Amino acid sequence: MVKFNPDLLPQAFKSCPICHAEGSLSVAVSKESSGKNVKYLLCTACRSTWVDLIETGMKLVVGPDEHVGFKSLAEWANLSQKPLDLSVMGKQLPSVKTPTIISTTNRKNSAIGCGFLLVLVVIIAIAINTCWESIPATETIDLSVSVSFDNGQFTIINNDSFDWRDVKLTLNSDYRLTYPLLSAKTTYTVGAMQFTTSDGTMFNPFTMKPLNMSISCETPDGNRGWWYGGWTAPTPTVPETTPEIKTDVVKQTAYPDIMERAKQEWGEDFEMVKYEYENQVEAYEWIMRQTAYPDIMERAKQEWGEDYEMVKYEYENQVEAYEWIMRQTAYPDIMERAKQEWGGDYEMVKYEYENQVAAYKALQ
Ligand SMILES: [Zn+2]
């Protein structure tokens, strides 16, 4: 599974999706009553707040009514009127790389005669528990869906044992279609031209390719259902490059353990095995060179084990927080209490100290 690092969202978004302020977004941590830390994205200019910071999107919980709810990262980027810079999100993976293939149509000629193989790829949302005090406890449920596209029509199957209500279908991020009800275990055929943008432009299947589809709905128990899938047309370069990559992968023996884990994670996807191996090796060699804060490194290793990219990421963040803490001289009592509460988790010590100092100042 690709690690999605929500801390990098403020860099990926060039401006706030709601107020378009630049540099106003930041990621903060809230401690739930259960003791679990939950991250959220906040705009310091307009106070818009998002939770569910996951690969497939995020949920606006404080903001204008018409935008409250879950949208894909691409949809939020559209609203921000700036392109999303996913290259800062740790790994530069297009979403279609996620390897769970749920349905494949055979090679067929489309209406304009340029047949292409559509591979439908489902993106598995990383389930993150997002309850916090002020937010109603609705969960996001992964819908069980099959979608295929042929001859200008989508075949959509509700594989769930429950009805979907208030269903919103979004094609290529901009074209929408709503249904009050799609019943359990039922197959629907939907013409592509039924999808329209907010200004009424129809999706034209003769000139446009379906790239992705998301489905959101209400479930009978009041939760929110969500599904996202993307199509990718294999390019001729894929079969040509794969054997080279395969050979390359087989040749790598410097770190057999890292190779073994990469293979376990990505299986026959040699391109991804190579990518994962190279990233992990780079992180591993970087870790071996660090000598400044052995205790912080030890904690990071305990938390992330042999996932060297995450160990490196954790170490860097904790060192930054630690060095920041060392520079603070005001309010030593508050710092002492924050250290007692969070110990060696310097990011949380810093967070606690900042919050407590802000609260103390507000009282003056
Ligand atoms: Zn804003």
Quick synopsis:
The protein has helices spanning 9-12, 73-80, 237-251, 256-266, 270-289, 294-304, 308-327, 332-342, 346-363; strands at residues 25-31, 37-43, 49-54, 57-62, 69-71, 101-104, 119-122, 140-142, 145-150, 153-158, 164-171, 175-182, 186-191, 212-218, 224-232. It has 364 residues and is α+β, with helices and mostly antiparallel strands. Residues 90-136, 233-243 and 246-250 have low confidence and may be disordered.
Number of E strands: 15
The fraction of residues in strands falls at: 15-25%
| Unreliable stretches | 90-136, 233-243, 246-250
Kindly report how far apart the N and C termini lie: 48 Å
Structural class designation? alpha+beta
Main sheet specs: 7 strands, mixed
Mean pLDDT metric: 76
The value of Rg in angstroms is 23 Å
Helix content: 25-40%
Which small compounds were modeled alongside the protein?
A: zinc ion
Shape: globular
Count of helix runs: 9
